[in-house]
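User: Some background: our group keeps a shared notebook of sequences we're curious about, and every so often someone picks one and asks for a predicted structure to add to the entry. Today it's my turn. The entry only has the sequence so far, pasted here. Could you supply the structure so I can complete it?
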Amino acid sequence: MNVLLDVFIDLNLGDDVFLETLLNRYKNVNFYCFDNKKWEKEEMGYDKYKNLFFLPISFSLIKSDSFDAYIIMGGDMFPQNGDFVLRKFICKSFSDAKKPIYIIGCNLYKNYSEDIQKDILYIFSKSSYAAVRDACTYRFLKTRLKNNRIVYSGDIAFSNHNLEGITKNGNILGISVRRKNDLGEDEYRKYCAWFARLAEHYIKQNEDNKLRFFAFSNGITKDIVVIHDIYSQMVANPERVEIVDYCGNINETLRMYSECNHYITTRFHGLIFALGYQGKFIPFEYEEKCVNLLDDIEYSGIRINYDSLDQGSIAVVVNQLFSSEFFYDRDKLKDHILRSELNFSTMDLFLNQGNQENKVIHLEAEYQSNLSVLLNESMKKRIIVFGTGSLSLKLSSHYKYCIEYYVDNDESKWNGSFLDKSVRSPVTLSDENKDDIFILIASQYYTEISCQLEIMGFQSNKHYIDKEQYHLLASNL
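Assistant: Of course. Here's the predicted structure to add to the notebook entry:
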C-alpha cells in the first residue's frame, strides 16, 4: 500500500517522534512525501527509514492511482500564515476518487484570516477522519462543520514506546530552549540572561544538582545557537551543565530527557515529554497550543511568558520545581494519554491491509515515466551538461542530445573542449535565460552542484533534474 504523507520533516524532535511512531506502526506501508530537495532529507538521516520515500511534487501522480490514502500529520500543519493551495488540491483529488484522507495530531489557532479559515475548514470537510490534540481545536471545528468524524485525541507522542521505562538519575533540571520568532535583540539578551541566572540558582541549591540544556530543533530553527548564547553568560558552575544536541537520535535524546526530574519547557514537546516522564515542570506559554494543553489537564502552577522574565521570579520557579505538588489533574493527563491512540484507531483498519511489493514497482515505473517526459521536454531547449568526467562521457554518447556546451568547476578545464564542445565556467550559466536551457548534472558531486545551481536561481525539475531522477538517469547509462 502507498500513502501520500504530508508532514514536517526538519530535524525537530517532536515531529520526528510523530514520524517514527507512524512508520513503525505501519511497517508494511510505503509512505511518500513530496519534497523537491530529497538530498537535504537524506543528509539529515531520514534515509534510515526503509518505508519512507521522497518525490518531487507531481500533479499527475496526485491524480493517478499511485496512492491509496492521504495523511496530514503534525501539530502545526495549519499555521496562521499558511498557504494551503496544494493541500486543497490533494484533498479534492483524493475525495473525488473516494480515497481516505486522515488528519492526525494537529491543533488550530484562534486568529485566522477569513480566507485561511475558509481553506482550513474546506480541508477538514474533505477528511475521512480527523483527530485533533486539544479540546479548544475540537470545539472550533465541531461548531463550524457537520463532519462527525472529528475527534479529540491526545498528542501522538504519547503513543511512542520511548515514554515507557522511566529512570530518574538524581536532581537534574532539563531545559528545552527556543527563540521566539518575534523576539527582538534586547528581549533575547534578557531571555538568555534569565536562563543563565536560573541555571546557576538551581545548581547552587545542592552540590549534586545538575543541569541539561536540550536543543530539540536543529533544522531551519537551530536551538543549539540559543543554548550556546545562554551558556556563555553563566559564571558559576558551568562544569555541572550538559548540552544535548538533537541530530536525529531520538532514543538517546529521550533517554537523557527521561533521566531529569525537573523541567523548564519552552518547547511544546518539552512539555509533552515532561508530562510523559512524570517530572515536575514549569511551562513557557509561547503559543496557544501550550495554553490549550495546560487548560486540558487543569494545570494550576506557574506559567512563564516572555514578558514576565525578571530575576525575582527565579527563586519562585525553583521553589515550585522542588514542591511535592504536581499542579495538574493527573486523571486528566491519564485521559489525554489514553486518547493518543485515537489518532490511529481508524487508520489501523485501513493501513494494516497493505500490499507493498507490487505497488512500489508501479510507483517507480511512473517516476521513470516522469523522468522520460522531462527529458523529452528538455529536447526543446538548449542542453548544457555540468561535468566533464566519465559519467558525462557516458551520458553524452548514450543520449545523443544536441549539447550546446559543458561547464565544470575545475578551472583548469575552462576555455578547453570536451567531445568537441567548449568547456566553460559555471558562472556562464548566470548570463543565460533560465527558461531557454536545461542542465544535465553529470557528476558524482550532485548535492554540491545542485546547491550551486539553486543559489544561481535555477530550480530542480524545471531547469535541471532532481537527485532521484539523476540516480534513475545514471542507472540507465
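Suggested note for the entry: The domain at 162-330 is CATH 3.40.50.2000 (Rossmann fold). The first strand starts at residue 2 and ends at 7.
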